Structures are given as C-alpha cells and as structure tokens.
Amino acid sequence: MQDPEALGGLTHAGKPDLTAPDPDAVFIPTENLNVASANQYVLKSGDTFIVNDPLGDITGRDDGLFVNDMRVLSGLRLTFGGRAPSLLSGSVSSDNTAFTAHLTNRPLPPLGGTSTPEGVIHVQRIRVLSGTVLNEAIELTNYGTSDAVVPLSISFSSDFRDMFEVRGLKRPKQGTIKAPRIENGEVLLEYVGLDDVTRGVRLAFSPAPPKLLADRADYSVNLPAQACVSIYLSVAVQVRGRDASSRGVDVSQPTHGVSEAHLSQIDTARPRVGRAAVRAALVDAHLVMRERRRATARVRSSNPLFNAWIDRSLADLGLLTTDLATGPYPYAGIPWFSTPFGRDAVITSLQTLWLQPGLAGGVLRFLAEHQAREDSAFRDAAPGKIMHEMRKGEMAATGEVPFALYYGGVDTTPLFIVLAGAYVARTGDTGLVDELWPALQRAAQWVAGVCDRNRLGLLDYQRASDGGLANQGWKDSHDSVFHADGHFPDGPIALVEVQAYASAAFDTMAHFATLRDQHDDAARYAKRATSIRACVEEKYWMEDSSFYGIALDGRGELCRVLASNAGHLLAFGLPSKERGEAVARGLESTLFHTGWGVRTLAAGQARFNPMAYHNGSVWPHDNALCARGLARYGAKAAAVRLLQALFQAAVNFDMRLPELFCGFPRRRGEPPTAYPVACLPQAWAAGSPFMMLEACLGLTIDAAKREVIIEQPMLPEGIDWLEVGDLRVGDSTVSITFRRVAGKVVASAEQGDVRVIALL
Length: 760
Known about the structure:
Blueprint: E1 17-19, E2 41-45, E3 48-52, E4 64-67, E5 70-73, E6 75-80, E7 86-92, E8 98-104, E9 108-111, E10 114-116, E11 121-130, E12 133-142, E13 148-157, E14 161-162, H1 163-166, E15 176-177, E16 181-183, E17 186-192, E18 198-206, E19 211-212, E20 216-223, E21 228-240, H2 275-294, E22 298-301, H3 304-320, E23 321-324, E24 327-330, H4 342-352, H5 358-369, E25 389-390, H6 394-397, E26 405-406, H7 412-427, H8 430-453, E27 494-495, H9 496-515, H10 519-539, E28 541-542, E29 547-548, E30 551-552, E31 558-559, H11 565-571, H12 577-588, H13 620-632, H14 636-652, H15 683-686, H16 688-697, E32 699-702, E33 707-711, E34 721-729, E35 732-741, E36 744-749, E37 755-759
Parallel strand pairs: 33-37
Antiparallel strand pairs: 1-20, 2-3, 3-4, 4-5, 5-14, 6-13, 7-8, 8-11, 9-10, 11-12, 12-21, 13-20, 15-17, 16-17, 17-18, 18-21, 19-20, 22-34, 23-24, 25-26, 27-30, 28-29, 30-31, 32-33, 34-35, 35-36
C-alpha cells in the first residue's frame, strides 16, 4: 500500500425540558476544541466507517464519517456553554460494534441566576454504525443536589473531500458543495461531484431542537437533580446519480471493469431517530459480529493478556470484513485503506486459513471476478493479472487517480494461486478450483509471460504509467528498493520474495494440473518452479553476508541490501536448508531484531531509518511471515521469541497491533514507538498472531485425510496451556489442548472423526 505521507445499554429517567434557549445564553464554539487526546476510535459497517476522538467528536483533520472513500461528515462536536466537556473515558466495545464516551461538564455559566459547578453532569455518548446510518444517544444525568440548566449544542459540517484529498493530494478542480437545507426538522448537506454524483447526509434529532441552524442544533435542557435525559441523533448517507432516483443504488462506482454486483448499496430511506433506532442498530451490529465469530475456531489460553490480544485481533478482523456478493472480504485498514486490496486480503486469508477458511474462499472468488481482461497502462492492467486495489470515490471515478481498479502489484497474482492451493489443502474443496480454474490458468499465464520476458526467467515489474506505483511489491513506497550505496535501481526490478511466490505458484499449478490429468502442463509448471529457485540461489545469495539481496535491477545487478524480504523466502520454502538457517540467524540478530520484532531493513544499511515507512520500521504481517519461515527452517524457538515480542508490543498498543510501528531498539522501561499515521486497525496486522501461533504450534491440517498433524509444538513464556476449540476439518470439528508437561509442550485431543497425529 502507498505510504500515507507520500500522498501527503440505554436508560431514560425523568423527562427533558427542552425549552427554547435564550439567544444571549447560547455559547458558540470559536476555538479548536480537540483538547482531550490524539487517540482515535473507529467503527465500520460495509463501505462506511467513522473515525472520532475519545470525546466522540470529529475534528476535520484525518477523521470523519466516510462512505466509499468520500468524507461526508468532517465535523461533529458536542459542547456545553460553548466548551467541550471534560473527558472521563472513551472506548469501543470488545466486539467493535459501539463507541462509548463518558464525559462530564466543565463549570456551566449562570442561566436564570444559577450556575452549575464542574463534574456534576455525567454525559454518556453511545454511537453505533449500521449500514450507512450513524445512530447516537447522548444521555445526561444530573448527580447534583439542585436543578441544572444545560446549554447543549451539536455542531456539524462536511467538506466532502475524497480520501486522497484527506491524505494530502491537491486537486485542480472540485465539485460543488450545495447550500445546507433544513427540511422537516432535519438538516441536509449535499455535494455534487465531478462524476455527476450527488452525495449527502441527512441529520435528524429527537427530541426536535428548539433552535436548528444549518450547522448546529441548540438545546437548553432543564435537568432536575438526580434526573436523566437523552437526546438522539442520526446521520444517514444519501447518494443520487444521473441514472438513479432514490432507490438505494450507489452509482458512484467507476464503470471501467468493476462489476456492479459488488457495489455498495446506499440506503436513502429517511432513517428513524430515537432510542428504538439506537437499540435496533446495536442488535444488528452485535448479530453480524457474532456470526463472524462463529465461523472461526476458538483460541483460549491460561494467560488473560494473551487472550485479550487474540480476542481483539479477531474482533478487528470481524470489523474489517465486509460481506460482498462473492463472500466475506477483509478490507485492508482504517482510515486510509478501508477498501478491497488484493495482496492484503490474500495475506490475511493465509494468516487465518487454519482457523477460518471461509474467508479465503470469499477472497478468491472476488479476486477472480475482478481479474484483468485487457491491457491498460493507466491501470497497470494486463490479461490474467489480479487487482492490487479498488477505490470507489470521486477521484477514482473521474480518473484523477488510477485506483478505481488498479493492478500495479507484481506479487498479488502469484499469491492468488498460492492461496488457492493452500485453501484446497486446508478444506479439501476441489470444487472451488474447478470454479476458479479459468482464472487460475489466466493468472499463471500472466506470471509465465512476464518471466519469459525477463532474461533470467524471473518475475519482475516496471510501472506502466507515471501515475502508478513506482515499486510494486509489498514495500511499495518510492524509496524501498535501492542499491547498497543508496541509489535507486533502473527497472524492471525482480524482488527476491516475489520469486518465492512465483515458484510456489507454479508448484501449485503443477499439483492442480496433475489432479486434472494434465500431465504435460504439470511438468512445464514444475520446471518453471525449479528454474526460479535455482536462479534465486545463484543470483541473489551474498556469501559475504550469508543473506539474500533484496532485488535484481534491470541490468541483472544485485541490490546488495539486507532486508526482511528474505524472510519471505523461508516462509515459502525456497532456500536450501543451510542458507535458510543462515537467514534465520540473521533475522534473529540485533541488526534486524529490535526486541519488539524484526525490522524491514537491517540497521546500518543505506537509507536505514527506524521511522521510515518501509526502511527500518516493524510490520506485524512481515514478522508473521518471518516467523513462519523460521519455524520451517528449524528455528521454532526463534519463531516463539518473535511471537513473544509482538505480544509484548501489542500490550503496549492496547492489545491492538497497528499497521506498523517504529523500529527503534527496545529499551528497559520504554514502550515501542508508534508510527504517526499507521492504520489502526489493519487486517494483516490483526491476522499476524494467528500465523505466528500456527507456526509455533507446528500445526498442519489435511482435510482430505481428516488429519491434524502437530510437530514439536512450543508455547511462549507465560502460557501454561492453550486450547484450539471447534477447529473444522472437513465436515467435522476437533478441539486440541497444548500443555506444558515436564519441560515440553504436549498436545491432546478429544476422540472423534478427526485424527490428531503428534510427530516427535
């Protein structure tokens, strides 16, 4: 993904007295009120998400209410007497369905001859997102001994900025923000985009505010002592286009190559507002998350903190997963990447495949449906290529950015094939391969065609247009690939880890072809896989460093840079045993390992910067793949230490691993250093503990044989036992418990249809 910086339970007691406010007593905010915290809290539903601060406010910086990559609400503030309330706490529920803020009043000004001291009024904001409607309950309780008059204002606004504008991209021209309208006690904010689509939000209140302006609802609440009063707000998204009325069809989607079957449905019906609406939305949101949890095996341990990490990770995956016509699909991350990405979804599916294989099935079907069918330099598309990114906003629809349906990723196509192979091995669902076989063949043909044009037979990339990504591996920032002296290489560029993906993809196709009695094709695929492995061993190995270089440039010269990319070679089993073990030792060294995890770039390399996006930071998903590789090459103890390090980092990040964090060395008494604009949550960061845990447990599932094979399991320190429950194998389930016994970890399982085999 692109570096963001590069683009620059309700109660109701008593009755409210909502009299018309005294005009002289209404205090209008005139200053920046974002004074509580820089922390952000998110909710998501389909293609809609909200980012707000701990107070529950939206400040208009990098937060807001977003739908399909458009910020439709850039301001939402609750004030009392013109001042922000004091923050007690802000949090999102454990299943990511509701945001709650607990606030209290600052001293209220005298109204009617009385004043209210600080800390007497408790304010609770409960917010839930359901579909494209945001519902909120604002509950005020007077714990004082005398009645209070509370001047309350809800301020709102929208700048209707495309996500790329929010990220800093300047536009030469924008659409038209229409004048706000007040209709039937509701406020309508609208924008007509350059794509001829009208996007808007309708704000409704209950009870009706005595004074409603185009940017503010004012109340003066007479709140008796020990009484409780609630005010309700709803924000509903509305979209209309040239060929749509108000039937709920989202016409903001690009037409070039995007199937309408997967476009979001925007509900333009007038929403309900009030306590019943909030309750109904909460019930719906809880049910959605509960069903997603039921599709996943359970992981519990003796360590409450570890359990909290696992639960938070699963909740984040549930939050980011969107139900599309093709099945569940994990969107990449919030706020910058809440949209389908190819590589991220494939990696996330691989991370969680052993626990919830249904996610992989949805990803495979979606990516097959959006496979490129034609050449396009602007979109970096070619027949057979698997998409990198899909965007649904205005700038994508108008072609101002190429990301409406963009294919500028060199590794997503082979990884698509690899995921298909791993899915079949995990589930035994050969029917999906039959369904996807044409798409798999086209993908393999694209990979083979690129390899044939490379003089060494490697899979390389070079962007097709200046508007695309210069680097097209997972480290896709502009400065992530370079030579030992720091200068940038000429293309095409053949990244080292991409060759492991390509080799594994050809091995997978050879296996599939054999199953289909296409033995000649199987032999050709196997030959290609062998050739790539041999070339990597010959061209990328650096004997003096006992490590693999990061890439070959267009002249075949090796970029002799020590980077975590080599760890991916181990994850997919490309190196020889001796070289794999050497790489494992390198990843364990202080050049890479910070104590919180493995850096993307070894210390001392040119362009090393622990604060850089890809040149020295720590990425959890990168560490998960490295841990998988370490275990594969006999360094399972190192994989356990890596899991332990990421677990300890997660504790410092409130049990939620971010997209990345800075790669400074660990120091006693200091937490890991956050990267300032990292997505949180991020799908493949949330999926990371599961790939690492799978590697440490030495667990392999063979659905065809109804077997679970466990080889030399290990557990991190502080965990005496761990249970994997309701693990689905074929049409049966099994529960396995791992316990420490006499210095070793021993696996035991209930008797049933699934065989659990422990290898010594």
